[in-house]
Design a protein that fits this description.
Bound molecules: glutamine
CATH topology of one domain: Amidase signature (AS) enzymes
Number of helices: 16
Strand content: 5-15%
CATH architecture of one domain: Alpha-Beta Complex
Structural class: alpha/beta
Helix content: 25-40%
């Protein structure tokens, strides 16, 4: 059965349709893989999952097989299993957001994204690890221990959605859902050699997504190919009346765009290379792979221009005011009364509600979460609001204007996804600014609400680790990301002679 796990989701869907495999067999093969590599007892594992729901996934798979025998599959991906980041509410399944404060919380409802996965017949394998409340770039801020990069178990898988990316890179799941507030789908994609998509803001419902920063959060696909992301995006995307920021407009035809791109012709497409997002301070091997990828786009017929987005240099500073401001307000609901953990102060049986709240938050929130709550509360406090939060909102507008001007000159904008390849576990843990810098190239898209994809661009020569190529498009033109991404992927696959993940050393030997 193990041969199946290395296929793409679209190949799995075809095999299900042709009757070559059942959903129960596919689901079991992934559960076996999870058992073998995720938390093996005899050695270090990937630790991509916080909860595995073998029973639930197999029951959903059996239902899918029954539908298929009756000739009524629910969607193109009916029966293909998936993993979901632990920040999306799943009815009856734990949802911790990687935090101790939500330990033991079982949501009474499904997030819209999860409900749509179920309505399309995808068995849910389990919930994936993440930085606490999606704050981080390495998954080391998870209260349940870090996830390890399948390329090198001593290195980070990116974050905050390192669990979803590592699960897909380690063939524990063919598909996963991530969320991207400042890069948490795209940056883990880049450092694990997988594909990650942040849709247009409002393109995928946020209902049931535990909010980090409401004006920035977006759920999206994590996969091994561009076509698989398009297939998954079409399942989860589209208007949802339960989310007031959801866009009431049909999605562009994403699968058609991916197929068009894979045919390799980009003539008429104008690609803008963002001047501010490369150069000094970027890892040379990442830049080399980036430039080679740009050359491949030219070979496919694209026209390349350099564009300048002068305010992008201020994106990080603005993001680290807007995000903590929204997060500090969102996290106020974890008050020891409504959800999860409740800690009684030691030796105080008659403690007041406020004392219980304080003890619970002290024990339940990690350092990074506390840091951001303090930062956000400060930025919003009277007397400082205009100087910090108000200023940051102005910078946000300037960044949107940079995008508007750049999209006059180009149909898509490109940059490396992250400045470096995967760093060692622990290397940046005590240096918040160094950690924040990983998202230099991804944050502008969240501030402006535009869509982006990260596609593997190859291995950096210094360390043999994956680098990512980011493609950004105007809001609602997600199809352009898929078209250009698929064209690059096709050209690179030809060069590599097969998928990049086949070269990942830590994956060899662990499976049959
Ligand atoms: N790494 C960024 C942060 O820590 C992005 C997080 C995210 O996209 N969820 O805020």
């Amino acid at each position: 059965m193990s041969g199946w796990i290395r296929k793409t989701a679209s190949e799995m869907a075809d095999a299900l349709a042709a009757g070559e495999v059942t959903s129960v067999e596919l689901t079991q093969a992934h559960l076996d893989r999870i058992a073998a590599v995720d938390t093996p007892t005899d050695r270090r594992g990937v630790h991509a999952f916080l909860h595995v729901d073998a029973e639930g996934a197999l029951a959903q798979a059996a239902e899918s097989d029954a539908r298929r025998s009756a000739g009524s599959p629910l969607s193109a991906l009916d029966g293909v299993p998936i993993a979901v980041k632990d920040v999306l509410a799943t009815e009856g399944l734990p949802t911790t957001c990687g935090s101790k404060i939500l330990e033991g919380w079982i949501p009474p409802y499904d997030a819209t994204v999860v409900a749509r996965l179920k309505a399309a017949g995808l068995p849910i394998l389990g919930k994936t690890n993440m930085d606490e409340f999606a704050m981080g770039s390495s998954t080391e801020h998870s209260a349940y221990g870090a996830t390890h990069n399948p390329w090198d178990l001593d290195r980070i898988p990116g974050g905050s959605g390192g669990g979803s990316a590592a699960a897909v890179a380690a063939f524990e799941a063919p598909l996963a859902i991530g969320t991207d507030t400042g890069g948490s789908i795209r940056q883990p994609g880049a450092v694990t050699g997988t594909v990650g998509v942040k849709p247009t803001y409002g393109g995928v419902s946020r209902y049931g997504l535990v909010a980090l920063a409401n004006s920035l959060d977006q759920a999206g696909p994590v996969t091994r190919t561009v076509l698989d992301s398009a297939l998954l995006h079409e399942v989860i995307g589209g208007h949802d009346p339960m989310d007031s920021t959801s866009i009431d407009q049909p999605l562009p035809d994403l699968v058609a765009a991916a197929k068009q791109g894979a045919a390799g012709d980009l003539s008429g497409v104008r690609v803008g290379v963002i001047k501010e997002l490369s150069g000094d301070g970027w890892q040379p091997g990442v830049i080399t792979r980036f430039q080679e990828s740009v050359d491949l786009l030219v070979k496919a017929g694209a026209e390349v221009v350099e564009v300048s987005c002068p305010h992008f240099v201020h994106a990080m500073a603005a993001y680290y005011l807007i995000l903590p401001a929204e997060a500090s307000s969102n996290l106020a609901k974890f008050d020891a009364m409504r959800y999860g953990l409740r800690v009684w102060p030691e030796g105080k049986p008659d403690a007041s509600a406020e004392e219980v709240m304080r003890a619970t938050r002290d024990a339940g929130f990690g350092d990074e979460v506390k840091r951001r709550i303090i930062l956000g509360t400060y930025a919003l406090s009277s007397g400082y609001y205009d100087a910090y939060y108000g200023q940051a909102q102005k910078v946000r507008t300037l960044i949107s204007r940079d995008f508007e001007a750049a999209f006059e000159q180009a149909d898509v904008l490109v940059s490396p996804t992250a400045p470096t390849t995967a760093f060692k576990l622990g290397e940046k843990l005590d240096d918040p600014i160094a950690m924040y810098l990983n998202d230099l190239a991804t944050i502008p898209a969240n501030l402006a609400g535009v869509p982006g994809i990260s596609v593997p661009s190859g291995l950096a020569e210094e360390d043999g680790l994956p680098a990512g190529f980011q493609i950004l498009a105007p809001a609602l033109a997600d199809d352009r990301c898929y078209r250009v991404g698929a064209a690059l992927e096709a050209a690179l696959l030809e060069q590599w002679g097969g998928p990049l993940l086949d070269q990942a050393p830590a994956l060899n030997g662990a499976d049959a």
